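Working notes for the structural subgroup meeting. M.R. asked for a predicted model of this chain before we commit to crystallization trials. I am recording the input and output together here so anyone reviewing the notebook later can reproduce the run.

Input as submitted:
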Amino acid sequence: MPVARTAFGYQYANIRVHVNDELLDRMATRTGGLYFRATDPEGLTRIYERINELETTPIKEVRTEERVGMRRELLIAALALVLLELLVAATRSRRVWV
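Returned structure, recorded in C-alpha cell form:
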C-alpha cells in the first residue's frame, strides 16, 4: 500500500489488514455470487481460471467505422466547375489578335 510520496515516486509498505471472509462469503451467497480471496500469485491464477470456467456469456466484439462520404450532387457540381474552367481557359487562349 502506498504510504508516502517522495521525489522518486511512491513509497510502499506491507500493511496487515483484517478481512472478514465469513461476511464476504455470506454476502456473495445471498446475492447469487461467489467469493474468492487470493493470498499469493498462484491463488490468484487459480481464481482467474475458475472465473473463466464460470463465464458462459459469449463476448461480442463491436467495431465501428467512420466513413466520410461525398454526396453525388456535390461531386457532379465540382466536376462541372472543373470542366467549365477548362473550357474558359481554352477559349481565352484562342483569341485572335488583329
